[in-house]
Structure formats: structure tokens, C-alpha cells
Amino acid sequence: MTKHWDIKKIGEVCEVIAGQSPEGKYYNNSGEGLPFYQGKKEFAEKYIGAPTTWTSNVTKEAQAGDVLMSVRAPVGPVNFATGKMCIGRGLAAIRASKSIDKEFLFNFLVNHESEIVGNSGAVFNSINKKQIESIHIPLPSIPEQKRIVIILNEAFTALAKAKESAEKNLQNARELFESYLQGIFANPGEDWEQKLVKDIGATQTGTTPKTAEKENYGHFIPFIKPADVDFTGLGDLRYDNDGLSEIGLGKGRKILSDSVLMVCIGATIGKVGFADREVSCNQQINALTPKKEYAPRFFYYAMISREFQSKVLLAGKGAQATLPIINKTKWENLTISFPSLKTDQQNIVDKLDVLRAEIKRLETIYKQKLANLEELKKSVLHKAFNGELAGVCT
Fold first, then answer.
1. 184 falls within a domain
2. How far is CA 346 from CA 210, 264, 270, 288, 358, in A?
3. How far apart are CA 390 and CA 139, in angstroms?
4. Residue 330: which of 320, 342, 340 has the closest Cα?
5. Do 88 and 204 fall within a single domain?
6. Which residue, 42, 104, 52, 97, is CA-closest to 74?
7. Is 60 exceeded by the pLDDT of residue 394?
8. The domain that contains 98 carries what CATH number?
9. Kind of pairing, strands 279-281 and 217-224?
10. Domain containing residue 70
11. Does residue 202 carry a pLDDT above 90?
């Protein structure tokens, strides 16, 4: 247990260097001077990423192996410096002395990130040099620190492999689905025909009732916006984000169940979703409600195919250079190929639905595994700094 460990302040066993940003006139992207890091989004990995900005006027310098801490918005995340660099006001460098292993220090700070709160300011939270120096850290002997680091590294390597395996299984399922989907629409059968979207069913563009009129909004019917379309990457619509009241629907447009919705403007142009219930949508979305003689979900799959997506993007780029957009008239005059018989359409839908369901199943397993791995990582870290890791002398 940690009762035999010394308790030290970080300032007693480390040098803390508070960042200071140079004047903007010294910044460059040509590699002149030292790489400059400010903080914020620099903490996705254990080691800081490649620089995008340099400065010829170095104010505060970090060195390779220093632990970098974000000290403002957010407070607490850490990673390692990979070389000499200039650090701005959003960072502090913590340089380990000979009495503390830098990996032990790093893992301790990762484990206690939620406890490093700093000051709650009017604009953003922050922590200063003195407060970092005052953080208490349990300190076993150097051999014990190194032993703990070895055990943690082995555990984290195993966790990383488990995560990689789960990711690979999910990727394989998605690739199988994508390959089968694109193969169908790239190689239509001799019995396939081609029609305009508007000849397959009813088309419409959504509209937005006045948001200032609160009576328009409620829970009578889901109100779909671009962010609600294909939000899982599998064509699902998010129904519980916003809704219209019965009054609001009277000012909007009702889209029937078994309709295909496509985003037709902006960066997400071409996103497609399938409505399994009645909905309404805003003006950035076009909808197709296929006629009864067709299998409706077939046209969802047709619209996510490269064959149809390329038509949408081509028409969208031609409309406006800065913002891709395809209006209802252009959209409903695009062509879609499909088997003549509804039974053949449904057979394709059934096969694609099975593959899609398998992806959803694997994704659920993957997300749960990631959550379990994250909890396991937290548990291992907690045990490490409570002297509870097997094989560790205390």
C-alpha cells in the first residue's frame, strides 16, 4: 500500500515552466525558429502532434520528455513534448528531476486529471504555475516507479490491441457492406430500368415554421434537420432531437413513413436517411415517398450508392462555387436505376438490411468494448497509485 510511499509536491520533484506566447508577428508556417504550441486541441495522443506554427521569438521553451499540461480551457490534459518547442499561455511544461520517473509522473497526472480543477474564471478555467507545483503526488522509490510504469505499459499495450481488434472487425463489416452495395449499383441487371426521381414517387422540400412562434414546436411529430440525417453513419434518423406541435405541422410539411430523406445543401450534401415513421423536415432536406409498386427502402440504398451520389455532387457543385446546393427541381430530375420487379428490389433490400444489421450489432459491441476498456484503464491507473498492482513492491 501507499503508506510507505513519500508524499511530495510536484514543485519539490519537478521544474514547472509556465508558457508565454510570443507576439503574433513572430509566427510563421515555414519552419523558422522553434515549433509553437498553444494548447487546446493538442492532447488527443500521448505525444504532441506535428507542429503547424513556428516562432522566431522563443519566450518559454519545453524540451523532449517534458510533460505538457493544458492550463486553460481545458485544465488538466497532458502529453509529452517530442523535442524543443516554444509553449504559449495555454500550456505548462513539467520537467521531472532524477527523483521521479517522467512516465510515472505522466500516468499519475492522467489518473488525476479530473481532480486538477484550477481557477473558475469568468471566461474559462485556468491553473497557474504555483497551483501545479502544489499538486501532491505519492512517490515510491525509483525502482518501484519504473516497475509500475512497466506494468502499466504492458496493460495499456494489451488494451490497445483489444481496441484495434474491435476496430478491425467493425471496419471489415463496413467494407463488406460497401463492396456489396456498390457492386449492385455498378453492375445493374438486364431487367433494370431507369426513371427520374419524381417519377418514382412524391417529392417535396421541407420548410421551417417560425421559431419565434413557440406554439409551432413540441412533440407532435419529429422535425428533422441535416444533423439528424444519417447521424450514426447507417442511414438512421434522429427522431428525438426536435419536434413540431400540431399547430407547427400545419405550417410545415408532413413526410410519410417509408420516405427517403436527403440533405441537399452545404458540407453534408448527399447524406441520406430513411424515415420509418411520419416526420417533418426543414428546407435543407428533400424527400422522396415512393409509390406503392416499389420497395421503398431500395431507393434509400440507391441514393447512398456512388452512382447516385456522384450525380448529386456534380449538380450541387454546378449551382454555386462556395456552397454546394441542389434544389428540388434538379434533384427530382436525377435518374435512378432499379430492377423492374418489386420482388427483386425487396430481395436486394433484404440482403443489404442483413449486412447493415450486422454492422449495427458489431458497432454496439465495439462501443461497449471501448467503454469497458476505458473503465479497465481507469481501474489499472487507480490501483497503480494506490500500490495495489500485482508484482509491485510497496
1. no
2. 40, 26, 23, 17, 18
3. 18
4. 320
5. no
6. 42
7. no
8. 3.90.220.20
9. parallel
10. 2-139
11. yes
